[in-house]
Amino acid sequence: MQASNDGAPKPSVPFWHLWTDAAGISHQTPCTLDDFELKGVGGAAPQWNNRHGTHPSTVVVTVQPVGWVGEWHENPAPQWIVVLSGRWFIESMDGTRIEQGPGEVSFGEDQGCVATDGKKGHRSGTIGDAPAVLMTVQVHVPPRRTPCHAI
Predict the structure, then answer these.
(1) What does the pLDDT look like over 111-142, one tens digit per residue?
(2) Nearest to 86 by CA among 53, 128, 125, 56
(3) What are the tens digits of pLDDT across the range 17-74?
(4) pTM of the model
(5) Buried/exposed 78-105: b ≥16 CB within 10 Å, e otherwise
(6) 3-class DSSP string for the chain
(7) Are the C-beta atoms of residues 19 and 30 closer than 8 Å to each other?
(8) At the topology level of CATH, where does 2-139 sit?
(9) How far apart are alpha carbons 40 and 49 in whole angstroms?
(10) For residues 148 and 62, is the Cβ–Cβ distance under 8 A?
(11) 34: closest CA among 3, 51, 13?
């Protein structure tokens, strides 16, 4: 961790970014949120904040049943995905497959993929004997074709 101006260690939060390259193929890249500022909010003691731009957004909570598989599809909008409970997987067109559990974060931005070998976007599904509960924050902005960028 980096240090802030007052010497406190600056946090870094990992996430996976599902993105589409210029050829229309989806990939997953490990990234970090690391643009934190130590600042109080609403009169509270200072806390670390990684502030993103203000954009129209939609919050959706999904419950994916045990055994659920979402075959090849694109995310409906660029969206932050936080696993609340259970486990799930995400597989991109390049063959990368990640698995996530409670508290893990990804950013799905695979819009504009080109169908290749019967694949377009990603596939995802539950793992194990419990539903996967996810909270998504769909950010209504145009997708970008670079990994690990700030919104």
Answers:
(1) 999 999 999 999 999 999 999 999 999 999 99
(2) 128
(3) 999 999 999 999 999 999 999 999 889 999 999 988 889 999 999 999 999 999 999 9
(4) 0.91
(5) bbbbbbeebbbbbbbbeeeebebeeebb
(6) CEECCCCCEECCEEEEEEEECCCCCEEEEEEEECCCEEECCCCCCCEEECCCCCCCEEEEEEEECCCCEEEEECCCCCEEEEEEECEEEEEECCCCEEEECCCCEEEEECCCCCCECCECCEEEEEECCCCEEEEEEEECCCCCCCCCCCC
(7) no
(8) Jelly Rolls (2.60.120)
(9) 9
(10) no
(11) 13
Which residue's structure tokens are 């976007």?
121
Q: What is the pLDDT of residues 63-82, one digit of tens each?
A: 999 999 999 999 999 999 99
pLDDT for the residue 1: 45
Return all residues near 21 (Cβ < 8 A) that are at least 6 apart.
27, 145
* The pair of three-digit structure tokens given for residue 56, joined into one six-digit string: 């129209």
